[in-house]
Amino acid sequence: MSSVSPIQIPSRLPLLLTHEGVLLPGSTMRTSVDSARNLQLVRSRLLKGTSLQSTILGVIPNTPDPASDAQDLPPLHRIGTAALAVQVVGSNWPKPHYTLLITGLCRFQIVQVLKEKPYPVAEVEQLDRLEEFPNTCKTREELGELSEQFYKYAVQVCFPYQTRIHPCCSHPILSSTLCLTSSLYSLVEMLDMSVPAVAKLRRLLDSLPREALPDILTSIIRTSNKEKLQILDAVSLEERFKMTIPLLVRQIEGLKLLQKTRKHKQDDDKRVIAIRPIRRITHIPGALEDEDEDEDHDDIVMLEKKIRTSSMPEQAHKVCVKEIKRLKKMPQSMPEYALTRNYLELMVELPWNKSTTDRLDIRAARILLDNDHYAMEKLKKRVLEYLAVRQLKNNLKGPILCFVGPPGVGKTSVGRSVAKTLGREFHRIALGGVCDQSDIRGHRRTYVGSMPGRIINGLKTVGVNNPVFLLDEVDKLGKSLQGDPAAALLEVLDPEQNHNFTDHYLNVAFDLSQVLFIATANTTATIPPALLDRMEIIQVPGYTQEEKIEIAHRHLIPKQLEQHGLTPQQIQIPQVTTLDIITRYTREAGVRSLDRKFGAICRAVAVKVAEGQHKEAKLDHSDVAEGEGCKEHILEDAKPESINDATDLALPPEMPILIDFHALKDILGPPMYEMEVSERLSQPGVAIGLAWTPLGGEIMFVEASRMDGEGQLTLTGQLGDVMKESAHLAISWLRSNAKKYHLTNASGNFDLLDNTDIHLHFPAGAVTKDGPSAGVTIVTCLASLFSGRLVRSDVAMTGEITLRGLVLPVGGIKDKVLAAHRAGLKQVIIPQRNEKDLEEIPGNVRQDLSFVTASCLDEVLNAAFDGGFIVKTRPGLLNSKL
């Protein structure tokens, strides 16, 4: 075979200093680039260069860490490897760095360092030949007598695996190279040839030139950096062959020892299996277990028995049988062993066909619901309807209910009562702040620490397939990079799809159609429309004052007495006192604050009771008989005395302790809410509106003032865009009807904004406000301002307006009316098309309030002012019309 001229590397090479390993010719290595010099080299030569020579680097092994970025260039190793940069990968996190894939070409020697900054460049001398075809004759001359010695070493190395030498290869150099090749083949054949990488290595060795074997062999076998550095420094081919043989011998001996150890272990395992009882191998059902048997094996047998006797569907059963077969073949040390076992245990524990029997006695269910909750007739009616239909049809799918209402009205407790009424298990799933869809659907088993979702985990907890699931705070679901849990709930809460719900962890279908899902929310505004469409919305409005009084004396007060160790013989809270707490110390749609106030009262009374028992014990010890007439009654008409002053009495208080308004003031402090409606409406330009919030209905004051200016309208109070548009609609309608109602500015002009600025303010400026229902209130407020008349102090209103003066319907009428009733107002103006909503108002509230339904702004103004807002006509205009 003819040879060609050797390939020359450039005489000047940029130097890449590495500390992670030693690159030898013919081998490939990945190295990280994070020092300043190396970073500058990569950016200048590799990323900007376009020629092939720009990708050839001089790789110098460097003992000191190049990441130290010292000012001076460290001492350089004399011999390096010319390398070709095959791949460059970069990243900026946590700091800029690159990763290079480099392939060694040949050795070189540094002649002179030409420059050190920004990266070192040196003049080099090539030491190895780079030829497309190797020159075998030249190699023979270089090796000389080494071939005989190397042949002897190679035979010793591959003694158990001797390879016959072909007669044509009788030349010493050919014999030596062939022996080295056979030694390397012996090393490869000791490995598992079924592994694709090993088979590929065998094919690669067939195509390698023989003189490249020492460098490549040193890179393949296990060697230290120091040994690789010695091979790199061996410029002579003869010296490299001498240094490679001991490394190859050491590797082969290590593999022989490893194979011998594995063989002994396999023989021991076979011996243990042979002495096991036959019934342990065949898994005979019903066989008694000996105490000395392997515990883990017994668990697998029991698990397999549970799978056979379980009532899971056919698809799930096939998956479990397949997994149990895989589990038997796995060693216990594998991480997948525990994962597969946990999966099978979950599959066995799930209630595939286990369910509870519903109590279908409607009369008993009605009594139970009435005892647990006062009012809430709409909720009770829906539950009783479900019971009635369930009694007529056994395979009724569970409904998807959503209770929407302000906090503290009992949405969660109603869900618990529904489960109690039906005789079902109850499980609550808190969804507030959940932002990962895996919480609903579970994690795939390929992830470390994977778990089923909350739905499947809840079914495992309750142990039946028809529980009552309460999805609490469904309106507060989040969204993140891990997915949208609201989208994952679409399958769960769809009666047409949840019979085939697939959790990512189970990877088999589970029937959720018998589960009664109840969701709770404070508002539907934040619930996605697709999810809202799958649920049956049931509004849960706030309570009236009468309902709160009943709830307090039926449920809240007995609960607080029990929690504080008190009895009705020790404390009495009259209904008048309860009404004072509701009106003066709380202002809410629910009863949570009311419950906390009762708790504060019980704690104060508990202090008095404990001190009285201590004093009574002292009196009994001293045989003191006085004090029979000493009583502590805190009566409403009596002289106000602080309950805390009872510590000055020498005798214990007589029970029960009666709580009146003066005791409330001592315990709870001065009233937090005073009726200020009449004071706020003592001057023109103020009106009362009604607003809906997620916390219930609220009254809202609207104030207006005018001053000299340029006709600007100023709006304050953190208003949304809709409320700002309502304000502009109101001022436009009043300007267009100023002559009709004889409304003038300060100078008597019908142009209300002529040289006049108007300022509209909605108090409680820290609260964001928006919505169209304040339109009629703004019109009334501005009409009062420009007419100089006072708005009635007992009137509140709500409704959307148009530019033509029509009043459009709005939502939340019941909550708004209850807010007006709590504030002590007497009349409420609502849109005429909202008259149907008055049927939901409790009868006692309708009796206390008078309602005015308006279809246009004329009717609103006539009802908002005493004597009506009559159209004023000048006499001249009247005569001209006649």
From TrEMBL:
PANTHER family: ATP DEPENDENT LON PROTEASE FAMILY MEMBER (PTHR10046)
Main location: other
E.C. no: 3.4.21.-
SMART domains for this protein: AAA (SM00382), LON (SM00464)
Residues reported in the UniProt entry to bind ATP: 405-412
Protein known as: Lon protease homolog 2, peroxisomal
EC class (word): hydrolase
Chain ranges of the Lon proteolytic domain: 681-867
Species of provenance: Felis catus (Cat)
